[in-house]
Amino acid sequence: MKPATEKYTPKKNWRLEDIDFGAIDSTLVRDDEQLFFLLTSASFVEIMADLYARNLVDHYQDNPDASAWLTDHWRQEEIQHGKSLRAYIRAAWPEFDWDSAYHGFAQQYGALCTAEELEPSRALEMAARCVVETGTSTLYRCLYDYANEPVLKQLLTQIKADEVRHFTHFHRLFQAYNAIEKNSAATVARTIWRRIREIGDDDGYVAFKHAFIGRHPDTPFNDADYVRFSKKINRWARRRYPYRMAVDMLLAPLPLAPFLKRLLRLPLTAVARATIF
Ligand SMILES: [Fe+2]
Ligand SMILES: [Fe+2]
Protein backbone atom coordinates (compact mmCIF):
# COMPACT_ATOMS: atom_id res chain seq x y z
CA MET A 1 0.00 0.00 0.00
CA LYS A 2 1.27 3.49 -0.90
CA PRO A 3 1.17 5.98 2.00
CA ALA A 4 -0.82 9.19 1.48
CA THR A 5 1.22 12.37 1.84
CA GLU A 6 0.44 16.04 1.62
CA LYS A 7 1.73 17.97 -1.36
CA TYR A 8 5.12 19.64 -0.95
CA THR A 9 5.12 23.40 -1.45
CA PRO A 10 8.60 24.46 -2.53
CA LYS A 11 9.81 27.87 -1.46
CA LYS A 12 10.46 29.72 -4.69
CA ASN A 13 12.33 32.71 -3.47
CA TRP A 14 15.99 31.95 -4.04
CA ARG A 15 18.41 30.73 -6.65
CA LEU A 16 22.19 30.69 -6.77
CA GLU A 17 22.10 33.68 -9.14
CA ASP A 18 20.26 35.75 -6.53
CA ILE A 19 23.31 35.87 -4.24
CA ASP A 20 25.81 38.61 -5.09
CA PHE A 21 29.07 36.83 -4.35
CA GLY A 22 30.96 39.84 -5.74
CA ALA A 23 29.70 41.88 -2.77
CA ILE A 24 31.43 39.69 -0.14
CA ASP A 25 33.49 41.64 2.38
CA SER A 26 36.25 39.06 2.58
CA THR A 27 38.15 41.05 5.24
CA LEU A 28 35.46 39.85 7.69
CA VAL A 29 36.05 36.13 7.05
CA ARG A 30 39.36 35.35 5.40
CA ASP A 31 41.41 34.95 8.60
CA ASP A 32 38.73 32.82 10.24
CA GLU A 33 40.13 29.33 9.65
CA GLN A 34 37.44 27.63 11.72
CA LEU A 35 34.70 29.21 9.57
CA PHE A 36 36.60 28.19 6.43
CA PHE A 37 36.70 24.53 7.55
CA LEU A 38 33.04 24.52 8.57
CA LEU A 39 31.83 26.04 5.28
CA THR A 40 34.13 23.91 3.13
CA SER A 41 33.11 20.70 4.91
CA ALA A 42 29.44 21.66 4.51
CA SER A 43 29.92 22.40 0.78
CA PHE A 44 31.50 18.95 0.19
CA VAL A 45 28.77 17.04 2.03
CA GLU A 46 25.93 19.05 0.43
CA ILE A 47 27.15 18.49 -3.12
CA MET A 48 27.40 14.76 -2.38
CA ALA A 49 23.59 14.80 -1.91
CA ASP A 50 23.54 13.66 -5.51
CA LEU A 51 24.73 10.26 -4.31
CA TYR A 52 22.49 10.03 -1.22
CA ALA A 53 19.51 11.02 -3.37
CA ARG A 54 20.08 8.12 -5.73
CA ASN A 55 20.20 5.68 -2.82
CA LEU A 56 17.05 7.15 -1.31
CA VAL A 57 15.14 7.25 -4.60
CA ASP A 58 15.92 3.54 -5.11
CA HIS A 59 14.62 2.85 -1.59
CA TYR A 60 11.31 4.64 -2.36
CA GLN A 61 10.93 3.81 -6.07
CA ASP A 62 7.43 2.34 -5.62
CA ASN A 63 6.19 5.68 -4.23
CA PRO A 64 6.17 8.17 -7.15
CA ASP A 65 5.33 11.16 -4.92
CA ALA A 66 8.23 10.51 -2.55
CA SER A 67 10.75 9.75 -5.30
CA ALA A 68 9.63 12.81 -7.32
CA TRP A 69 10.06 15.04 -4.27
CA LEU A 70 13.47 13.54 -3.48
CA THR A 71 14.66 13.99 -7.06
CA ASP A 72 13.06 17.30 -8.08
CA HIS A 73 13.13 19.25 -4.82
CA TRP A 74 15.22 17.83 -2.01
CA ARG A 75 18.18 16.74 -4.17
CA GLN A 76 18.19 19.99 -6.19
CA GLU A 77 18.05 22.13 -3.07
CA GLU A 78 20.84 20.24 -1.30
CA ILE A 79 23.04 20.51 -4.38
CA GLN A 80 22.25 24.23 -4.55
CA HIS A 81 23.40 24.52 -0.93
CA GLY A 82 26.68 22.91 -1.91
CA LYS A 83 27.15 25.03 -5.03
CA SER A 84 26.33 28.28 -3.25
CA LEU A 85 28.74 27.47 -0.42
CA ARG A 86 31.37 26.59 -3.03
CA ALA A 87 30.80 29.94 -4.76
CA TYR A 88 31.17 31.69 -1.40
CA ILE A 89 34.40 29.85 -0.59
CA ARG A 90 35.87 30.62 -4.03
CA ALA A 91 35.07 34.31 -3.60
CA ALA A 92 36.29 34.61 0.00
CA TRP A 93 39.35 32.30 -0.18
CA PRO A 94 40.37 32.42 -3.89
CA GLU A 95 43.74 30.73 -3.22
CA PHE A 96 41.97 27.50 -2.13
CA ASP A 97 41.61 24.91 -4.91
CA TRP A 98 38.08 23.71 -4.10
CA ASP A 99 37.87 21.28 -7.03
CA SER A 100 41.02 19.31 -6.12
CA ALA A 101 40.04 19.15 -2.45
CA TYR A 102 36.53 17.99 -3.35
CA HIS A 103 37.93 15.34 -5.68
CA GLY A 104 39.90 13.84 -2.76
CA PHE A 105 36.83 14.00 -0.51
CA ALA A 106 34.48 12.44 -3.08
CA GLN A 107 36.85 9.53 -3.77
CA GLN A 108 37.26 8.63 -0.10
CA TYR A 109 33.72 9.35 1.07
CA GLY A 110 31.91 7.97 -2.00
CA ALA A 111 33.22 4.51 -1.11
CA LEU A 112 31.66 4.75 2.37
CA CYS A 113 28.21 5.98 1.27
CA THR A 114 26.33 2.93 0.04
CA ALA A 115 22.71 1.80 -0.10
CA GLU A 116 23.39 -0.78 2.66
CA GLU A 117 23.59 2.06 5.17
CA LEU A 118 19.89 2.89 4.73
CA GLU A 119 17.41 1.65 7.33
CA PRO A 120 15.55 -1.53 6.26
CA SER A 121 12.09 -0.02 6.89
CA ARG A 122 10.71 2.91 4.88
CA ALA A 123 9.30 4.68 7.94
CA LEU A 124 12.51 4.25 9.93
CA GLU A 125 14.64 5.63 7.10
CA MET A 126 12.37 8.70 7.07
CA ALA A 127 12.89 9.05 10.85
CA ALA A 128 16.64 8.81 10.22
CA ARG A 129 16.37 11.54 7.55
CA CYS A 130 14.59 13.73 10.15
CA VAL A 131 17.70 13.37 12.33
CA VAL A 132 19.98 14.43 9.46
CA GLU A 133 17.80 17.46 8.67
CA THR A 134 17.73 18.36 12.38
CA GLY A 135 21.53 18.29 12.28
CA THR A 136 21.73 20.57 9.24
CA SER A 137 18.97 22.94 10.45
CA THR A 138 20.72 23.45 13.78
CA LEU A 139 24.21 23.68 12.24
CA TYR A 140 23.15 26.43 9.82
CA ARG A 141 21.34 28.21 12.63
CA CYS A 142 24.62 28.24 14.63
CA LEU A 143 26.55 29.45 11.59
CA TYR A 144 23.95 32.15 10.94
CA ASP A 145 24.21 33.38 14.54
CA TYR A 146 28.00 33.41 14.31
CA ALA A 147 28.41 35.00 10.86
CA ASN A 148 28.94 38.74 10.61
CA GLU A 149 29.65 38.99 6.88
CA PRO A 150 26.44 40.23 5.18
CA VAL A 151 26.50 38.01 2.07
CA LEU A 152 27.17 34.91 4.17
CA LYS A 153 24.36 35.92 6.50
CA GLN A 154 21.98 36.23 3.52
CA LEU A 155 23.05 32.84 2.13
CA LEU A 156 22.69 31.10 5.50
CA THR A 157 19.21 32.59 5.97
CA GLN A 158 18.10 30.81 2.80
CA ILE A 159 19.85 27.52 3.51
CA LYS A 160 18.60 27.19 7.09
CA ALA A 161 15.00 27.80 5.95
CA ASP A 162 15.36 25.08 3.30
CA GLU A 163 16.68 22.59 5.87
CA VAL A 164 13.71 23.14 8.19
CA ARG A 165 11.32 22.60 5.26
CA HIS A 166 13.16 19.37 4.36
CA PHE A 167 12.71 18.19 7.94
CA THR A 168 8.99 18.99 7.77
CA HIS A 169 8.53 17.00 4.58
CA PHE A 170 10.55 13.98 5.79
CA HIS A 171 8.46 14.09 8.96
CA ARG A 172 5.24 14.00 6.88
CA LEU A 173 6.57 11.05 4.91
CA PHE A 174 7.54 9.31 8.16
CA GLN A 175 4.02 9.74 9.51
CA ALA A 176 2.48 8.41 6.30
CA TYR A 177 4.71 5.30 6.31
CA ASN A 178 4.42 4.72 10.02
CA ALA A 179 0.62 4.75 9.78
CA ILE A 180 1.15 1.52 7.81
CA GLU A 181 4.22 0.04 9.54
CA LYS A 182 3.21 1.02 13.09
CA ASN A 183 6.74 1.04 14.51
CA SER A 184 6.65 1.57 18.29
CA ALA A 185 8.04 4.67 20.01
CA ALA A 186 10.93 2.51 21.32
CA THR A 187 11.84 1.31 17.82
CA VAL A 188 11.73 4.84 16.39
CA ALA A 189 13.73 6.17 19.36
CA ARG A 190 16.41 3.51 18.81
CA THR A 191 16.72 4.52 15.14
CA ILE A 192 16.91 8.20 16.06
CA TRP A 193 19.51 7.54 18.75
CA ARG A 194 21.63 5.39 16.43
CA ARG A 195 21.55 8.07 13.73
CA ILE A 196 22.43 10.84 16.22
CA ARG A 197 25.53 8.87 17.21
CA GLU A 198 26.55 8.55 13.57
CA ILE A 199 26.35 12.29 12.80
CA GLY A 200 29.71 13.60 11.73
CA ASP A 201 31.44 10.24 12.19
CA ASP A 202 32.69 9.67 8.65
CA ASP A 203 31.69 12.70 6.63
CA GLY A 204 32.97 15.27 9.16
CA TYR A 205 36.38 13.60 9.38
CA VAL A 206 36.83 12.99 5.64
CA ALA A 207 35.60 16.50 4.72
CA PHE A 208 37.92 18.18 7.24
CA LYS A 209 40.85 16.06 6.10
CA HIS A 210 40.55 17.11 2.44
CA ALA A 211 39.80 20.75 3.30
CA PHE A 212 42.94 20.74 5.48
CA ILE A 213 45.11 19.15 2.78
CA GLY A 214 43.86 21.78 0.28
CA ARG A 215 44.50 24.67 2.65
CA HIS A 216 47.89 23.44 3.91
CA PRO A 217 49.36 21.55 0.94
CA ASP A 218 52.86 21.60 2.48
CA THR A 219 51.80 20.21 5.87
CA PRO A 220 51.15 16.45 6.16
CA PHE A 221 47.64 15.81 7.52
CA ASN A 222 47.55 14.15 10.90
CA ASP A 223 44.52 12.80 12.80
CA ALA A 224 45.55 15.07 15.69
CA ASP A 225 44.62 18.05 13.47
CA TYR A 226 41.07 16.75 13.32
CA VAL A 227 40.96 16.09 17.06
CA ARG A 228 42.11 19.68 17.73
CA PHE A 229 39.54 21.07 15.27
CA SER A 230 36.72 18.98 16.80
CA LYS A 231 37.51 20.23 20.31
CA LYS A 232 37.44 23.83 19.08
CA ILE A 233 34.14 23.27 17.27
CA ASN A 234 32.60 21.64 20.32
CA ARG A 235 33.45 24.71 22.44
CA TRP A 236 32.12 26.99 19.67
CA ALA A 237 28.87 25.03 19.29
CA ARG A 238 28.21 24.68 23.04
CA ARG A 239 27.83 28.46 23.30
CA ARG A 240 25.24 28.81 20.53
CA TYR A 241 23.62 25.43 19.81
CA PRO A 242 19.76 25.61 19.76
CA TYR A 243 19.26 22.61 22.10
CA ARG A 244 15.55 23.20 22.58
CA MET A 245 14.92 23.37 18.82
CA ALA A 246 16.90 20.13 18.30
CA VAL A 247 14.95 18.31 21.03
CA ASP A 248 11.60 19.46 19.60
CA MET A 249 12.59 18.28 16.12
CA LEU A 250 13.84 14.90 17.37
CA LEU A 251 10.75 14.31 19.48
CA ALA A 252 8.45 15.06 16.52
CA PRO A 253 8.62 11.63 14.81
CA LEU A 254 8.12 9.65 18.05
CA PRO A 255 4.64 8.14 18.09
CA LEU A 256 3.85 9.47 21.59
CA ALA A 257 0.95 11.49 22.97
CA PRO A 258 1.57 15.28 22.76
CA PHE A 259 1.44 15.67 26.56
CA LEU A 260 4.22 13.07 26.94
CA LYS A 261 6.36 14.97 24.44
CA ARG A 262 5.76 18.18 26.41
CA LEU A 263 6.79 16.37 29.60
CA LEU A 264 9.95 15.02 27.99
CA ARG A 265 11.00 18.30 26.41
CA LEU A 266 12.67 19.98 29.40
CA PRO A 267 14.52 16.95 30.82
CA LEU A 268 15.73 15.98 27.35
CA THR A 269 16.92 19.52 26.67
CA ALA A 270 18.90 19.35 29.93
CA VAL A 271 20.37 15.97 28.91
CA ALA A 272 21.25 17.36 25.47
CA ARG A 273 23.00 20.36 27.04
CA ALA A 274 25.01 18.06 29.28
CA THR A 275 25.97 15.55 26.60
CA ILE A 276 26.04 17.11 23.10
CA PHE A 277 29.32 18.93 22.33
FE1 LIG B 1 21.49 21.24 2.77
FE1 LIG C 1 18.30 19.29 3.86
- Largest sheet, strands/sense/barrel: none
Taking all Cα atoms into account, the compactness measure Rg is 19 Å
What ligands are attached or bound here? fe (ii) ion
CA(first)-CA(last) distance: 41 Å
Q: Work out the count of structural domains.
A: 2
Work out the helix count. 11
Indicate the structural class. mainly alpha
Helicity level:
over 70%
Task: Give the overall average pLDDT.
Answer: 91
Instruction: Give the overall shape.
Output: globular
What is the H/E string? HHHHHHHHHHH
Spans of 5+ residues with little confidence (pLDDT < 50)?
A: none
Q: What fraction of the residues are assigned to beta strands by DSSP?
A: under 5%
Total count of strands: 0
Explain what you see.
The structure is a single chain. With 277 residues, this protein is mainly α. It has two domains: 135 residues, no CATH class; 111 residues, no CATH class. Helices cover 71% and strands 0% of the residues. Helix 5 packs antiparallel against helix 6. It is globular, with a radius of gyration of 19 Å. The N and C termini lie far apart (41 Å). The mean pLDDT is 91. The structure holds fe (ii) ion (2 copies). The site of one fe (ii) ion has 5 residues, from helix 5 and helix 6.
Name its key features.
single chain, 277 residues, mainly alpha, 2 domains, 11 helices, globular, binds fe (ii) ion
How is the secondary structure organized here?
Layout: H1 33-47, H2 49-59, H3 64-92, H4 98-110, H5 122-146, H6 150-181, H7 185-198, H8 203-215, H9 223-240, H10 243-251, H11 258-275
Helix pairs in contact: 1-3, 1-8, 2-3, 3-6, 4-8, 5-6, 5-7, 5-10, 10-11
The structure holds fe (ii) ion (2 copies).
The site of one fe (ii) ion has 5 residues, from helix 5 and helix 6.
